[in-house]
Amino acid sequence: MDIFGDMGTINIQGESQKKLDVFANEQFIAALKSGGECCIVASEENDEFVHIDGEVSKNAKYIFAIDPLDGSSNIDVNVAVGTIFSIYRRISVDGRATLNDVLQKGTEQVAAGYIIYGSSTMLVYTTGKGVNGFTLDPSIGEFCLSHPKMKIPEDGTIYSINEGNYVHFPEGVKKYLKYCQVEDEQSSRPYTSRYIGSMVADLHRNMIKGGIFIYPTTSGAPNGKLRLVYECNPMAFIIEQAGGRATDGYDRILDKNVTSLHQRSAIFIGSKNMVLKVEELMRTHSSKSPEERAAEKMEKLGIVGGID
Ligand code: AHM
Ligand code: MG
After folding, report:
1. Most C-beta atoms within 10 A of its C-beta, which of 4, 9, 69, 143?
2. Domain 6-147 is of which CATH architecture?
3. Which atom of ligand 1 is nearest to the CA of 164?
4. How confident is the model at residue 307 (pLDDT cuts 50, 70, 90)?
């Protein structure tokens, strides 16, 4: 089957789509359509959300957001990739579901999960009552509970960030990276640097071993790279449920206002004490300007429209 390489198309985020991105998107949408529980799919690979309500899902109550294949730059080189999903309850009552049904805060998620396609295939998910991990047993075609009640260690020694972007990072992140690299026996520093470039794989490793994953704003991407609806929010829900912490360097990810489908956000996520440490440095060295704070306040009050 011809599954490697570029599709030759660009998605709404201006990223080149891989054949497997498109294939995975079609497969998930088809499965959700026949499942009948969801009325909308919002996907990284579709500019607009897709209505999937039909005969089978006339009264569907759920909204599904998905990054069908996360880390797709790793497909052609046989490195682990993943799927991220998030489920919301529909809030509109009449007619067809609308964009407002999709633009709910992360705190409103009823479930979120990821699938990691690594040395084994695992499904890790939460419904807000802790996190459980299931490993695919291909001989029976079932996911079996292999990691019950997953907890991320409060402290860790692994940091994951695309350090090639160092010159473009906020000062607080630069200071944190230097902190990670300093020798200090008591806190087991210098820490270990591990970056796969697949958020699912990087976070899954950090969840098990303890660590932090950072994708900050950069001078080239002032709103960050990763998407709030189908990347940051589901991962934040899972990590919080596992006892970790997820912020944009200042504020909790799950509390962020969602104003557009493909909205981006910075993310600092992982072991609680590691995230707290970098937040402290962000506050000291990269505090938001009074103008940024004022704009946020107005946005919260609904005074200005959406930003991407
Ligand atoms: P994608 O959804 O298009 O694959 O992009 C998301 C991925 C994340 O999995 C990963 O953490 C990040 O992009 C890597 O980006 P970079 O190559 O800039 O480090
Ligand atoms: Mg992605």
Report:
1. 69
2. 2-Layer Sandwich (3.30)
3. 19
4. very low
